[in-house]
Amino acid sequence: MTDVVSRSVAPGGTEPPALPSSIGDTAVQPDFLAAAPYRVPASRYTSPQFAALEAEKLWPAVWQYACSVDHVAAPGDAFECRLGRLSAVVVRDEEGQLRAYQNVCRHRGNTLCEGHRRGLSELRCPYHRWSWDLQGVLREVPSRRGFGALDMASLGLVPVAVDQFGPLVFVNFDAAAEPLDTWLESVPADTRWAGLDEFRCVAAATTPVPCNWKVVADGFSETYHVQGIHREMLGSMDDVHAPQQIFGRHSVSYQPYGVPSPRAGSDPSPGEVWASFRAVMGDRLGPVDDVDPRPPIPASGSVQDVIADRIKAVQAAAGVDLSRFSTEGILRLAQYNLFPNATLLVWGDMLNLLVARPGPTPETAELVSCAFTRMGRDTVRRPPLDLLRPPDADFGLVLNADVAVLKSMQRGLEQPAFTELVLSSEECRIVNFHRHLEQQLGI
Ligand code: FES
Ligand SMILES: [Fe+2]
Asked: For residue 105, which atom of ligand 1 is closest to its CA?
């Protein structure tokens, strides 16, 4: 392993594969075109009974994102994952194996581990100091004689299924769960080109938000709202020629950037495309103040190529060689919706994860947003920055609009006359989500 501060990359990944012709070339998904809209009961977003059903039948039975591999990279690392009411502690044991346990002390039920811990050789409850080794075996009970004949072997920590996909750690409270690899359906194969193992988590921010967790997840499951709350994106992102694919429980949207949307109105000039991209994703072009507001377009080039070349140059200056990727590999976003609550955004140079977790009531949730940077496959993983951010924090131009709409959505959903959501085939990933949610809940 090389401990690198500047990012040097051994090439991984190839070009993104061509999209299957069966999914069409627009966001209107052929398989979901229906004579009438899909309707979903609004009470799923407001009812305590529905939230209780999810607590009983959804969350304990699905693979869900817990933390990044960077959070638990070294032996003795432990990370507490609060997943709504559920809590798991993910641990890297002395042999380097990833393990996870229900985060509860088997004495009187205290939470065993809080926050991010490093250099542990045991998991010790702070209340009365019962202690387990990292394999979950109970090793020490203070003043044990007072318990009489205590069967230590029966009081091991309760394991939670744990596995990783690229730099993402997932857990499942169902001990009989299918393996993560098959749970993820075609997503690992579809992302292979991007070499996800090269990405390192640099920051993970948790934000309490005033809405149901599904309002958050829905907002990252369609591009229909770009024309509404992200109009600044229309100059540099084609939300119309953005085909969607349903794998099964998971789905994806492929979105071309560096080209204007047909919804932008009059045909934007290359200068307007450049300005839109600079405003929406300025950091990918380098520090915004350093980026020329006019595109340096040669007579024979396209603005999309100029943007992709600029991103490659920015990455090359940081030691990351992206020369193996074409313009499409850099500028076609693949946005995966991982059932039930995670959205993974894959680009050649960048990886982002957005996770919606339920709050203590149906009208509260947590948004977890994680930023990953491409580094060498052998680059030592370091603990990312964990942040707690208020909902009025500055998340950047686009995400600010997504967060701002959450509150007004929930207030609307609570109105007595609003009984059903009305969904188009352009919102097929939300429809697909609800179909699988129904299956999971036995509706
Ligand atoms: S509750 Fe953990 S040792 Fe008592
Ligand atoms: Fe959005």
From this structure: 2
